[in-house]
Automatic annotation (TrEMBL):
Residues 18-36 have a biased composition (Basic and acidic residues). InterPro entries: MeTrfase_NTM1, SAM-dependent_MTases_sf. It is an enzyme of class 2 (transferase). This is Alpha N-terminal protein methyltransferase 1. Keywords: Methyltransferase, S-adenosyl-L-methionine, Transferase. Its EC number is 2.1.1.244. One of its GO terms (biological process) is methylation. The keyword S-adenosyl-L-methionine applies. Residues 1-46 are annotated as: Disordered. One of its GO terms (cellular component) is cytoplasm. It comes from Extremus antarcticus. S-adenosyl-L-methionine binds at G111, R116, Q175.
Amino acid sequence: MSTSPKRKNEEPASLADDVSKRARIDDNSDNDKAEEIPFLNPNAAPDSHIDHKAAIKYWSSTEATVSGVLGGYPQVSRIDLQGSSNFLAKLRRQSKHFPQGKKLQKAVDCGAGIGRITTGFLSKVAKQVDIVEPVKSFTDQVKDGENVGEIYNVGLEAWNPHNDGLGPYDLIWNQWCLSQLTDIQLVEYLQRLPPVLSEGGWIVVKENLSNHHLNVDVFDETDSSVTRTDKKFRQLFEDAGMRLVAMEVQRGMPQGLYAVRAYALQPKQVKGKK
Ligand SMILES: C[S@@+](CC[C@H](N)C(=O)[O-])C[C@H]1O[C@@H](n2cnc3c(N)ncnc32)[C@H](O)[C@@H]1O
């Protein structure tokens, strides 16, 4: 299973299994040809196993379809997009900067895959949607789409929108992709966003939540990602200097899949104010 919607009762291999997957050397074979399987230290933090190369290898070999980016659950897309649209509408009802009825100027779809969210939601609410996604064969599917602006084929850990002179964005949407970043990378990424966020704009994080019985994050070697607990997300948002302004559990997810939660964040420190 992968970053995308996934079954909670099909958790990745246990740590004991991970240990058994250490480098194997076949006594009867030439050592140079021995199969190298990485050793995963069971005591290490789950996010320390994240390997961006392995993740990109996985996603590059995944079919560029809704089913591909949603881990074989394309039926989830409709309810997800509807839930996202309702969530933004609620945010806008309470906003003096972006009341409903007018399109946002600019949004950005981060870890966008084939642009499922851009096509089905963001391009309907924003005049321009920029895209950040490391796999080019995915963004090739959306590059000619309505209201699609700049496309950056880079991982979020390396995306520095302020240095690139981007923004301001009224909405920065991150869905089913932040699990690809380590905890530190996620905090640093969030810390880079305030300079490119419009006043009153939102950073939305919509991700699976770990249901591990020990309330810990879970590493998934399929796509080299980590599924975090709600507690961990809140801690990382705090560490990044973000204020949680709204939160909603995605309703109507098929039974047996991880719960999905949307968080809306704003920087605690408002631009220009000390
Ligand atoms: C489960 S798909 C979700 C795509 C899209 N957000 C959606 O909901 O349809 C995960 C996406 O994260 C991308 N990804 C992988 N590593 C990433 C990274 N380091 N930074 C940003 N995105 C990454 C993958 O290429 C893939 O497109």
